[in-house]
Amino acid sequence: MIKLNVLADEIQAGPQLSVVVPTFNEATNIAELVNRLDVILQGIRWEVIFVDDNSPDYTARIARALAQKDRRIRVIHRVGRRGLSTACIEGMLASSAPYLAIMDGDLQHDEKLLPQMYHTLESKENLDIVVGSRYVDGGGLGDWNQGRAQISRFATWISRSVIKSNLKDPMSGFFMLRREVITDSVDKLSGIGFKILLDIFASVSRDLQFKEIGYTFGVRHSGESKLDSLVAWEYIMLLLDKTIGQYIPVRFIPFALVGCVGVAVHMSALWVTFIAFGTSFIMGQIVATLVAMTINFFLNNFLTYRDLRLRGWGLLTGWLSFSLACSIGAISNVGISTYLFQENTTGWFSSALAGIIIGAVWNYAVTSVYTWNQKS
Length: 376
Ligand code: GDD
Ligand code: MN
Prior knowledge:
By secondary structure, the chain is an alpha/beta fold. It has helices at residues 30-40, 59-69, 84-93, 114-123, 146-159, 179-185, 196-203, 229-243, 252-276, 281-304, 313-342, 348-370; strands spanning 17-23, 46-52, 73-77, 99-102, 129-133, 175-178, 210-214. Helix 9 runs antiparallel to helix 10, helix 10 packs across helix 11 and helix 11 packs antiparallel against helix 12.
């Protein structure tokens, strides 16, 4: 036992339930959310953890002001990073509670489900997770238009490729689980994109015991959705990570695709300078290389490293380190392919291909560490 220097009744035990709420620009919603939690979670020792990615509307500051009046409110303020799933993971890891809930900050998830989720988990020992579901009895999509509903159903359908459980709504962002589920899966979670529930189901080594409770997806209280076309892209990356991610780092795929675009850009720029403007070949090559590297840098910053995107001065130093790394990559590419070709071990095509692959892997490895500072 720890020795305490205050009266025992001044001390309160830790929470039984942590509600983890990822936020980005939800300043106008969080006070209302806290009010509703306070009403609905009477009788449960709860806390709410807002995990905010440095929202420009100062969500974190407002959450801290609320927390000063109520210690059940906590804030994790992340800087230089974006991501709904990683925010949820970090929120859950920052809690000590035996039960953890994930919920949006815009009041689209029906908080009235929380007590039922909690009591269900508490009373059924072998149950791991309770999911707020739009696709079981009592559930619905609310006022979603046909298009979005269809996309959601399609995404649900392809999620079957990475999870075995017959979960009706693996795309739900509203659920409650036992801490052990996270403890068991945290090393394997991808943390890519929006779909943290799917990530959890695809990462645990056993079959999770789950129950789905229907609810109707509500309308956003205020503010705007962060769902954009890149969310679909991130979803594909999550599926890839869960399938081939154990063999190659999943970011290498977009990096290589961007590299292919770079080749096309290079050839076009070379054509413009060398053919159309009639510069010398070497001059055309220098210009084309610079243009291709620059475009590759920005594309990778936008797509491959969306969550670690460089901004401001970071763009300049990032571009410099990227160009430097790729120059060395290009030199080794030419050196290796020339060597292979001259040794006559392989033909021209496979010599060149080997050079390209080695150069690409080098570029990826070096820029992932030096340009985007990715920790392993
Ligand atoms: N920390 C952090 N970082 N939070 C984020 C980020 C981010 O990069 N992007 C979004 N959020 C927060 C939002 O502030 C909100 O609280 C919650 O994540 C959901 O974002 P919305 O932009 O409101 O998403 P939605 O309403 O389109 O999607 C919801 O519905 C899906 C059902 O299909 C989400 O709940 C999804 O998780 C859910 O799957
Ligand atoms: Mn929303």
